Amino acid sequence: MTRGISAATLVLLQALPGGGGGGSLTPLLFQFGLIFLIFYFLIIRPQQKQRKSHDEALRNLKRGDRIVTTGGIIADVIHIKETAKDGKPQPAMDDEVTIKSAESRLIVERGRIAKIVSPTGAVSSAPADRKRQDNSAAS
Fold first, then answer.
1. Contact present, 53 and 59 (Cβ < 8 Å)
2. Residue 77 and residue 99 in contact, taking contact as beta carbons nearer than 8 Å
3. pTM tops 0.70
């Protein structure tokens, strides 16, 4: 009999607003806010930074850069036809970029370039360092 009373007492205590916690939404809202902050700092913010740096790299695209398109074509940039706004050429994501892959020339939009494999000036520095190492090893 004491067991039945204690179980009934527990049920009544849980039903009361003051006992057992059940009337406040503050902990729940705090948890949702914390989860949102975690998602923001671990997923959303780094993705925004990556997109901004990719857009900046595409805006600074130059002739001679080696690129990879979203379709997987590896090519060199031959010509960039920029749109003019107010008389000044401004890089936009829908500019036409002429690329050369092997013996084929293609025209793609600037925004369809997935990544820049090697900018114009980055290729020339690596062989020079290798020659210096070979000369020092031979001595």
1. no
2. yes
3. no
Q: Tens digit of pLDDT for each residue in 70-127?
A: 999 999 999 999 888 888 888 889 899 999 999 999 999 999 999 999 887 554 434 4
Tokens, residue 56: 């900046």
Q: State the pLDDT at residue 19.
A: 46
CB of 12 closer than 8 Å to CB of 6: no
Beta bridge partner(s), residue 104: 101
Please tell me the distance from the alpha carbon of residue 30 to that of residue 18, in angstroms, as a whole number. Answer: 20
User: Which neighbouring-strand residues pair with 88?
Assistant: 85
CA distance 72 to 57: 18
Which is it for the CA torsion 81, 85, 87, 91, positive or negative? negative
Residue showing tokens 């690329």: 99
Answer yes or no: is pLDDT of 55 > 60: yes
Residue 113: C-alpha distances to residues 58, 72, 107 (Å): 8, 9, 11
pLDDT tens track for 5-24: 555 555 555 555 554 455 68
- Number of Cβ within 10 Å of residue 105's Cβ equals 12
Long-range contacts for 29-32 (Cβ within 8 Å, ≥24 apart)? none
